[in-house]
Design goal:
The chain has 102 residues and is mainly alpha-helical. It has four helices and no strands.
Length: 102
Amino acid sequence: MNQPLLIPKTLDEKYREWRQTPHGRIIYAEALRRALFLQTKGLQHLGVKFILESIRWDRLYHTGIDAEGFKVNNNTSSRLSREIMQEQPLLQDFFETRALKG
């Protein structure tokens, strides 16, 4: 019996799948909200991981450890920042970015 060749998912594919989950939608909306808020406070550039760490902290502080496994994977940060900047003209070039990997 021949087994199909398993091709690992790319980071882009994993990101798109994650964005369709409830956690992915929540994190996107919250990151967008915080980026817009910080921009109104005068910030012109920021690393997206600052926002993701603040979301992690707030989630843990307010709700404790989530039984559903609420996570913000660092592998999503580069795609998340690019999606936010692409979808929200006010935030174009707001996040610091580097060349994408895999």
